[in-house]
Amino acid sequence: MAFRLTYRRQCRYNTKSNKQRVVKTPGGRAVYQAIKKKAKGPHCGDCGMALIGLPRLRPVEYKRLKKREKRVNRAYGGSRCAHCVRSRIVRAFLIEEQKCVKQVLAEKLSQAKEKEGGKKKSKK
Predict the structure, then answer these.
(1) What is the mean pLDDT of the chain?
(2) Which strand (E) or helix (H) includes residue 110?
């Protein structure tokens, strides 16, 4: 059964932000009810995966939330997923280790050069 209804808001075009649903009232009338847009929700800035533990709301509705509801209790909690944070930490640790190894090798090389220079002088 097709209902002949009019929009209850000022916008009278079938746009993305003006979707309507037909609802029967308790009095038996059929009226339009406005549908809110579905929220995509927050995603990881590195890999693009949806962040777990955060609500899927429209951007304006995040303003009304408390700080603890907008993020996860972790470093980069509201913007990066746990896997990406872990990989960042491991990468930083390995880079630091590589710097230490380079420094140790450079010291060994310089000590070896000093010993060679000392031996040549003592032979003469």
Answers:
(1) 91
(2) helix 82-123
Contacts for 31-39: CB closer than 8 Å, 24+ residues apart: 31/5, 32/5, 32/6, 32/7, 32/8, 34/8, 34/9
Cα–Cα distance, 49 to 2 (Å, whole number): 42
Residue with the two structure tokens 């009278």: 12
Q: How far apart are CA 6 and CA 44, in angstroms?
A: 42
The residue type at 9: R
pLDDT tens, 47-85? 999 999 999 999 899 999 999 999 999 999 999 999 999
Spatial separation of the C-alpha atoms in residues 121 and 92, rounded to whole Å = 44
